[in-house]
Specification:
Strand order of the largest sheet of chain B: 2-1-3-4-5
CATH architecture of the largest domain in chain B: 3-Layer(aba) Sandwich
Number of domains of chain B: 2
Largest interface: A-B, 35 and 35 residues
Largest sheet of chain B: 5 strands, parallel
Shape of chain B: elongated
Distance between the termini of chain A: 22 Å
Order of helices and strands of chain A: HHHHHEEEHHHHEHHHH
Oligomer: heterodimer
Radius of gyration of chain A: 20 Å
Largest sheet of chain A: 2 strands, antiparallel
Radius of gyration of chain B: 23 Å
Number of helices of chain A: 13
Strand content of chain B: 15-25%
Number of strands of chain B: 14
CATH class of the largest domain in chain B: Alpha Beta
Structural class of chain A: mainly alpha
Helix content of chain A: over 70%
CATH topology of the largest domain in chain B: Rossmann fold
Strand order of the largest sheet of chain A: 1-4
Order of helices and strands of chain B: HEHEHEHEEHEHEHEHEHEHHHEEEE
CATH superfamily of the largest domain in chain B: Response regulator
Structural class of chain B: alpha/beta
Amino acid sequence: MTAIESRPPASMPLLRTACIVGVSVIGFFLPRLLGGTSAAYSTLTTIAIFAVMCYGVDVVLSYLGEVSLGHTLFWSIGGYTAANLSVKYGLNGWDTALATIALCVAAAAFLGAVTLRTREFVFSLVTYAAAVVAYEVAFNWDAIGGSDGIVGIAALKLPFVVTTFSGATEDELWPVAFVLLLLTLAFISRFRRSRLGTTALMVQMNPALAASLGVNPRRIRLAVFIISAPITGLAGWLYAYQRAYVGPDMFESYFLVMMLTAVVLVGRRVLIGPLIGAALLIAQQNLLSLGGDWNKIVLGSVLALVLIFWPAGLVGLYRRLSKNKP
Amino acid sequence: MNKTMKLAAVMLLGLTAPVMAQDIKVGTIFPLSGGAGPDGQTVTNAVKLMVQQINDRGGLLERKLVLISKDDESTPAVGVSRANEMIADKVDVVIEGWNSPVTLAMQPILARAGVMDITAVSKSDLILSGQTNPYAVRINSSNGFDAAVIAKYVAETLKAKKVAFLTQNDVYGNGFQAAVEAEFKKLNFAGEVIMTEKFAFKDTDFRVQLTDLKAANPDAIIVTNSSNSSGLPAMVEQYRQADLKSPFVGAVGIMLTTVFKVAGDANNGIVSADIFFPDLPPFTTMPESASFVAAYKKAYGAAPDKSAALGAAALQVWAHAVEATKSLDRKTVAEAIRGKTIKATVFGDAQFLPNGQMQPRYVLFRVVDGKNAKLEALE
């Protein structure tokens, strides 16, 4: 299912809109449907935030065909920006979000320009190296938190027209996380059908055709990489408010493995793939946990098995099984 | 009449019984897997032992204690999930914390939910800053106190005139050195720091630094090295081979079992300090401590180390405060600990500062038989 194939039939826009609204409303009330407990709110908020985090990686993997190992950098930029600006300067959520987007775009423009000529293995390695360098800086630079990180991040405050939205607890943060997830989904779905999205896919799948049409592949690659960064960055931004603590652990491989596994588990270029992937992984860790060592073994094995046997993810597996049926 | 009274009493008991019988839930969150897994298991086991002992004596407030133990995998994000699970389980207290970042990440979650939170091991100063948890309590010593005891020993006992530092070049090492130098100032130290040699956490070859130190011949070398299974034993061996005459003064808490196992007798003569020993006075003469050491040996077949004692003390301190206040309320219990003295813990009578820090009681020691990890207490 490529982006081009998946274009919905234009004849039923009303039905489609109704479906989207219906699913959104159910999604919004999901924590209440699951009992309205603090555990339901915190688990679903975490899933929403982690899903948004994964969508940044998904854009790069699905549309550039590259594995970015550096998206923990953007995730951390979001967290550190929210933490530093809100604790030291008392800025509200809008300001820290704008700063996050600006810094992520700047960092991605630099990293994207540097890696413009690199492909595959080298691209992954350079993005990984960037994250390692940033980790060392964050770990040793006391002015932005140092090895202990930053504590005392106040509740998220989003002044809106006449009222101020505040997210002190998980059930108050849930609407913000949910809206951020919806916006991300809307953005990705629009991106898939945009000129940039379709061109990026052409550059990846058929570089000869792209070249013959006069497409500059480097420009496309840079643009897609820059677009992906603030998505992951905004997830880190909200995560800082949810956890009220930001430290160098945001660079840890825990998040990197989560991003990659969630994206490949369901399959590339499936709109809700990363969301389902993140939900499955968090549910396994929180509800069906086998203990720390076993969880890591399961997560690593799942990633390896999927990549070896069903490179197209669960969707690919399903399609293969349904094809075999008489 | 008497019979009716009895009957009424029985009925009343029957009515209240379900409430009274409700168990008190104690949660622990430590790393139980990965590199720090064995350490976290030690602390958890110590808490478990204390819970059993309290239940054997009839419980707390006549209710049974149940223990819920979870694994933070040394990962702050996982710790946060576990903290949320504890809140969902409605635990009455959480004893947590091997790594500072994990503690710092869990602290606001537990504080927002109003769950009593006692930090057993994590050492960061931010934990007690009051920004996220105004009712924080910590058992392990802080870096500031650790630096003070080492500075005092070097300045007043050794009466050193020329001091050198052999410092791990990271927040821990540099922070400890800065704290010791600040303590020197407070003590109006007459000597001077003549040399600072640095190395990275992962280093195992210190011959260049040791040669420099030998040439400078200071009256004391103050060493920070938290790589207790490879870096520090290598450093001790090379210090012996280089035949330095300057005393080796180790920072608080670095002389762990692995150092003795690997470097053996090369450790002889090293001076350091710590806050708990199963086989040194004053702990051998404290009844609570001696009975804990005996019970721990019986249950787990080895003497408890400092981290086990910290876990046990965390539960004891909380249980004493609950008993004294007849309450499980976070604020009430915390106020009975912070700034107060809790009697008869494995650390003896434990004094708490107003910010929730337990006042440590240090023992300075010299290694006499490194191979068997035998120490002698200094006065």
